[in-house]
């Protein structure tokens, strides 16, 4: 059963200590991968050295990895790079210093003034905004709760249909585009993009009739609200959910928790790891909420898109193997349409391909599950642009640029889906 999301919630963070996690002395490095041997070495290092936080790492020779290194590991890390003859440069001398205070500001947003593009909204602000839209545009916008997080926060889904079609055919079975964002808590730009997508489709509906006439949109702007709030209040680079795991650990990587080749590859069985897959598939209420909504839409949902950051990738199944699905060309064609549109509009280049072949094997992902189990024919993950050298921490001044560029790609892909599945 679906229930309206009527009120925002105010909850104390469970676990952790007072004050924010310090990143004093943490350094961000860019490391060149100039041979297959170096690509393989960095991948092995990522899997074995849990204290090293790989912000960006793919399998493409000639690309650059981004690694955040804590002070205690600096000498060890530099020695490894020297031994492997890996060229590198320091991008951030002290990560603590680049966390500007305005990222954590408490000034609230007034929903009636529209969606701001110069700050990262907190969970309650998102809820207030989408509820305001649902009241103001009740003829074609609904907000529903599809589940609750571990700490009890409602997980909202916003459904948007064409205003004209909704009035005459409220139960229209148009193809559904399902978008979620923010399963990885620290990837703040992803929920910002989901909120921008909602804003454009609703407040600028007249300009996007081509996106609304043939499609129904269901958007979950914040899939991991507990982790998101925790990343604002306590630990900026927190990635997982917030349910206790193991004896002294917290959280599960939601994008390793889906029940399709779960726990086979690319995920950790160590509860403290950032890629911990959970003690069982769908152990998290957050992933169960997305699962249930995908299964509810089975047969109708034609395009599943999970928004993440960062790296400028359009990735599709499989994530558990380098083999490709039988009809991968159809998914690739949609992804290529998005990449082309972005390059034509902004000059930015996106890498397109299967998750395993572009990045690395990682089983238990939502896009594999949507494709294989929920029968969504076009399923993919979109890695948004980062914040330059700041990666996961793009300053608020870059939000508008990031979301507008991403919208160009999402629009092009959705139109491609509408042409082929309406």
TrEMBL record:
Q: Which GO terms describe its biological process?
A: proteolysis
**Membership in a protein family:** Belongs to the peptidase M14 family.
What one GO molecular function would you report for this record? metallocarboxypeptidase activity
An example of a Gene Ontology cellular component annotation for this protein is: extracellular space
UniProt cross-references to SMART domains, sorted A to Z: Zn_pept
User: Which residues does the Swiss-Prot or TrEMBL record annotate as the active site?
Assistant: 383
The answer to keyword Disulfide bond applying to this record is: yes
Q: Where is the Peptidase M14 domain?
A: 119-417
Does the keyword field hold Secreted? yes
Entries under PANTHER family matching the protein: FI02848P-RELATED, PROTEASE FAMILY M14 CARBOXYPEPTIDASE A,B
Keywords recorded for this protein, A-Z: Carboxypeptidase, Disulfide bond, Hydrolase, Metal-binding, Metalloprotease, Protease, Secreted, Signal, Zinc
**What is the name of the protein in this document?**
Peptidase_M14 domain-containing protein
Q: Where is the signal peptide?
A: 1-19
Q: Which cofactor does it need?
A: Zn(2+)
Role, per record: Involved in the digestion of the blood meal.
Q: Could you tell me which Pfam families the record lists for this protein?
A: Peptidase_M14, Propep_M14
Compartments, record wording: Secreted
């Amino acid at each position: 059963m679906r229930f309206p999301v009527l009120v925002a919630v105010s909850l104390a963070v469970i676990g952790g200590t007072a004050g924010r996690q310090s990143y004093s002395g943490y350094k961000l490095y860019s490391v060149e991968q100039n041979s297959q041997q170096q690509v393989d070495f960095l991948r092995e290092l990522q899997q074995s050295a849990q204290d090293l936080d790989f912000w960006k790492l793919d399998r493409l020779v000639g690309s650059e990895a981004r690694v955040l290194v804590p002070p205690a590991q600096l000498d060890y890390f530099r020695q490894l790079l020297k031994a492997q003859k890996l060229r590198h440069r320091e991008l951030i001398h002290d990560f603590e210093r680049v966390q500007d205070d305005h990222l954590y500001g408490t000034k609230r947003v007034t929903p009636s003034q529209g969606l701001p593009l110069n700050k990262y909204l907190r969970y309650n602000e998102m809820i207030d905004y989408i509820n305001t839209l649902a009241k103001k545009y009740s003829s074609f916008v609904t907000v529903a709760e599809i589940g609750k997080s571990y700490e009890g926060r409602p997980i909202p889904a916003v459904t948007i249909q064409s205003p004209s079609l909704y009035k005459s055919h409220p139960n229209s079975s148009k193809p559904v585009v399902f978008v979620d964002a923010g399963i990885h808590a620290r990837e703040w730009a992803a929920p910002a993009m989901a909120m921008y997508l909602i804003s454009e489709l609703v407040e600028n509906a007249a300009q996007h009739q081509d996106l609304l006439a043939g499609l129904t949109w269901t958007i979950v702007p914040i899939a991991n609200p507990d982790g998101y709030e925790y990343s604002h209040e306590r630990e900026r680079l927190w990635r997982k959910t917030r349910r206790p795991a193991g004896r002294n650990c917290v959280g599960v990587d939601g994008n390793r928790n889906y029940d399709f080749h779960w726990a086979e590859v690319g995920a950790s069985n160590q509860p403290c790891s950032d890629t911990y897959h959970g003690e069982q598939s769908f152990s998290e209420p957050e992933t169960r909420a997305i699962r249930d909504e995908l299964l509810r839409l089975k047969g109708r949902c034609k395009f599943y898109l999970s928004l993440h950051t960062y790296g400028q990738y359009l990735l599709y199944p499989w994530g558990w193997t380098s083999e490709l699905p039988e009809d991968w060309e159809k998914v690739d064609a949609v992804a290529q349409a998005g990449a082309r549109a972005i390059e034509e509009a902004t000059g930015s280049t996106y890498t397109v391909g299967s998750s395993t072949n572009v990045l690395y094997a990682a089983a238990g992902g939502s896009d594999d599950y949507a494709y294989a189990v929920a029968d969504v024919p076009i399923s993919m993950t979109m890695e948004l642009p980062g914040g330059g050298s700041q990666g996961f921490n793009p300053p608020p001044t870059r939000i508008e640029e990031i979301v507008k560029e991403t919208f160009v790609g999402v629009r092009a892909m959705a139109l491609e889906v509408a042409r082929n599945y309406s």
